[in-house]
Design brief:
This protein is of the alpha/beta class. It is built from 13 helices and eleven strands. It has three domains: 35 residues, no CATH class; 134 residues, Response regulator (Rossmann fold), CATH 3.40.50; 119 residues, 3-Layer(aba) Sandwich (Rossmann fold), CATH 3.40.50.
């Protein structure tokens, strides 16, 4: 028995079946009665479960293949389609799209940074389209996201880009990624690993890159520890000065530009120095590094969101949960082969 409907029925002095019909806008009930019961329901904090309602609609129509609803894939890059320029975000979407279809949903892309609409208008558009579940998929201004009335939606974010909005989240396990890459390089005979990370990249990962580096370095002998190259932004001359000062035998970075700078300076990779990426994807071809399995983060976000819809959980949770996705090593031509192969 639905306890909230019992409370509504007692306060309205009607039967629970009447409450049920009123909450479904059943035409057999007088409008005055429906509106009265619906107001009492709102006052008592009742929120209809959109997923359950969708399932029942599909059952009544006898269409087992009918979509259970639509989820929003929210982007917020400066231009509407800019997110497609980044393999990470494309993978997020492909994973989310695949899992949404498997779960019986469709998925729509909405641009939160559209300057022609307000956050309230965006929320109205989503609600008018029957969308109750939202995936925040990309970086955007804090202002853009803070102004959306999140209490109307069930939300999961992908990545750690929105520190002030603590939704449930699926994200790469950056500490594991750092350890994976470091151990792979050690197995190939590299001993002095040089890590090149910008402050901006580290902040987007909520300090996990630096934390992982320092944790790994704490297990190494002092003579093998290379000071971290940690500028606010990458600069070619400063990077090359760091390299020549400390002479790491392998460089680990998020950005492949650093490898190109080494080549332009006359170094041969991997003969003179090894190079590995912390965020490898197919666009980087024969580079070695960690495949963060970003499509799995997209899939996990949909799984989490559907579970929240089933539980009728809306708004910002008191205690957000984070699901960590481990990386896989991608062998490439920018490092030498393992010593024991």
């Amino acid at each position: 028995m639905n306890s909230i409907q019992v409370k509504i029925a007692k306060k309205a002095k009607v039967s629970q079946s009447t409450v049920s019909r009123a909450l479904k806008n059943h035409p057999a009930l007088p409008e005055k009665t429906r509106l009265k019961i619906q107001k009492i329901a709102r006052d008592l904090g009742y929120t209809p479960n959109p997923l359950i309602a969708s399932i029942f609609r599909s059952m009544r129509r006898g269409n087992k293949k009918e979509s259970l609803g639509t989820l929003a894939f929210l982007t917020a890059h400066p231009t509407e389609h800019e997110w497609k320029d980044f393999a990470t975000y494309r993978d997020f979407y492909e994973g989310a799209y695949k899992r949404a279809i498997e779960q019986g949903f469709t998925i729509e892309i909405h641009w939160a940074a559209n300057p022609s609409i307000t956050a309230e208008r965006l929320a109205s558009i989503l609600l008018a389209r029957g969308i109750a579940g939202v995936i925040i998929s990309s970086r955007g201004s804090i202002k853009t996201f803070n102004e959306i009335p999140w209490e109307r939606f069930s939300v999961v974010r992908i990545g750690l880009s929105h520190q002030t909005l603590r939704f449930n989240c699926s994200v790469n396990h950056q500490t594991h990624t750092l350890r994976l890459v470091s151990n792979q390089l050690v197995n190939k005979g590299y001993t002095r690993l040089g890590f090149a990370i910008t402050a901006k990249q580290n902040a987007a990962a909520e300090q996990n890159w630096i934390s992982g580096i320092l944790l790994w370095q704490s297990t190494q002998s002092a003579e093998n520890i290379v000071p971290i190259y940690f500028p606010q932004n990458l600069e070619k001359l400063a990077f090359l000065e760091w390299y020549h000062t400390h002479k790491p035998d392998a460089v680990v970075s998020v950005n492949p530009d650093t490898a190109q700078w080494l080549r332009e300076h006359g170094l041969i990779i991997p003969d003179d120095v090894g190079f590995a990426l912390l965020d490898w994807h197919a666009d980087y071809g024969n580079y070695a590094g960690a495949d963060q399995n970003n499509y799995l983060a997209g899939e996990a976000a949909v799984d989490m969101l559907v579970d929240q819809l089933r539980r009728n959980e809306f708004g910002i949770p008191d205690h957000p949960r984070t699901l960590l996705i481990e990386s896989s090593w991608h062998e490439g031509e920018t490092v030498r082969q393992n010593l024991h192969v």
